[in-house]
Specification:
Layout: E1 8-12, H1 16-26, E2 32-35, H2 38-47, E3 52-58, H3 66-76, E4 81-86, H4 91-99, E5 105-108, H5 113-188, H6 195-230, E6 238-239, H7 240-255, E7 259-264, E8 269-270, H8 274-290, E9 299-307, E10 311-318, H9 348-358, E11 362-368, E12 372-380
Parallel strand pairs: 1-2, 1-3, 3-4, 4-5, 7-9
Antiparallel strand pairs: 6-8, 9-10, 10-12, 11-12
Length: about 375
């Protein structure tokens, strides 16, 4: 843990001499914040509530006693250890505060340096341990939710495989049967012309091919979900232009009323499975579309890629609302989302980065609030056959 992230001591005393003495005794040992008044201390605590591990206050101060200050501080930083420095004349009030749980410990003036140092050491050790416990608990909760999601994903993949199998078989049969139908109709059209029928006959092969491609993609998605749930890694290469074209088709319904979606790049293959690449691109394009709300301008999403000697740089750029600087790294944390309840799971960007990293690539985000976001993916070029 970085020293600047360790819990600190906040010492509050309206006597400037006492503040200097405290700093002289403990400034080299602890990270210390000093405050000369209760109101100033509360403001500082609000600003640095996650940093303060111990609050040590003098009891007699103008406007607010130390007990009152620590009681108010408890609502701002409930995990901080609260201690008082008091004179004998204030002993009863302090003892009552300890009994009520407002204060964890007190010291009588003049305090003993070694006793106070030992108490601060113990309190900060406890604060650090509690911080680690909360971090571990947070990670465990995320792991548990992700494990549950993995089980659900495996179940979805299993349920998908049956219908996808029927769909693929029926599409193959339809393709075979329609070939005969088209041949028959085409032979009789010259004798009985019908422009609508002729147009339909011309369009049917492309429509059936799209249907077959969609069925195959669904099958690959189901296999990919099952492989990910089992922890398997599916190697492969992908034609970037083909995958981008298919991802754009899949995203069309989400993007249609929000933005103009374009793609641009030369033919190239990358070391990345086509299903995984489509999953990443679809996530990024849908995220970009959802970022268009409230901008007051025509939305634009561009998927572009450039080829370099060793790798390919693929970018999804939008002119949406952008992401605040303090959230730009957090958006990659599992289960974190800036979207309203019911929209998104907080897993899209996390999964995208994980998939790209597993393939030996890199995913980088740059965003300007109010102007838009660029997400740049760098992937290895596939060797020529």
């Amino acid at each position: 843990m970085n020293p600047s992230e360790l819990p600190a001591v906040l010492y509050v005393d309206d006597d400037a001499l006492n503040l200097r003495v405290f700093d002289a005794n403990f400034g080299q040992r602890f990270r210390i914040f000093r405050s000369a008044s209760p109101s100033e201390a509360l403001t500082l605590l609000e600003q640095r509530k996650g940093e303060i591990g111990v609050i040590l206050s003098d009891q007699r101060m103008p406007g607010m006693t130390g007990v009152e200050l620590l009681e108010r501080a408890r609502s701002i930083a409930p995990d901080a250890k609260r201690m008082l420095v008091t004179a004998y004349a204030d002993m009863q009030a302090v003892i009552d505060a300890v009994n009520r749980g407002q204060v964890t410990r007190y010291f009588v003036k003049p305090w003993d340096r070694s006793e106070l140092q030992a108490a601060l050491d113990d309190a900060l050790k406890i604060a650090r341990l509690e911080l680690r416990i909360r971090e571990v608990e947070g990670r465990m909760m995320k792991s548990e939710r992700l494990a549950t999601l993995g089980q659900v994903t495996a179940g979805i993949a299993h349920e998908l495989m049956g219908p996808v199998g029927y769909l693929s078989q029926n599409v193959a049969s339809l393709q075979r049967d329609l070939t005969s139908v088209i041949q028959y109709v085409s032979k009789h059209l010259p004798a009985d012309p019908s422009p609508p029928v002729a147009e339909t006959v011309e369009d049917l092969p492309a429509l059936i091919k799209d249907l077959a491609d969609g069925a195959e993609h669904l099958r690959q998605v189901a296999l990919g979900l099952r492989a990910q749930a089992r922890g398997e890694d599916m190697e492969g290469t992908a034609d970037v232009a083909e995958v981008v074209s298919f991802a754009v088709k899949l995203a069309r319904a989400e993007v249609r009323d929000r933005a103009r979606l374009t793609s641009n790049g030369e033919p190239v293959r990358v070391v990345f499975g086509p299903v995984k690449l489509c999953q990443v691109l679809l996530n990024l394009v849908v995220n970009a579309a959802q970022a268009m709300g409230g901008t007051g301008r025509q939305g634009r999403i561009e998927v572009r890629w450039s080829v370099r000697p060793e790798d390919v740089v693929l970018t999804v750029a939008d002119n949406g609302c952008g992401i605040p600087m303090d959230l730009q790294e957090r958006v990659f944390q599992p289960l974190f989302t800036t979207k309203p309840v019911g929209i998104g799971t907080g897993l899209g960007l996390s999964i995208c980065r994980e998939l790209v990293t597993q393939a030996g690539g890199n995913l980088r985000l740059s965003s300007t609030p109010g102007e838009g976001t660029d997400i740049e993916i760098t992937l290895r070029r596939a060797p020529l056959p």
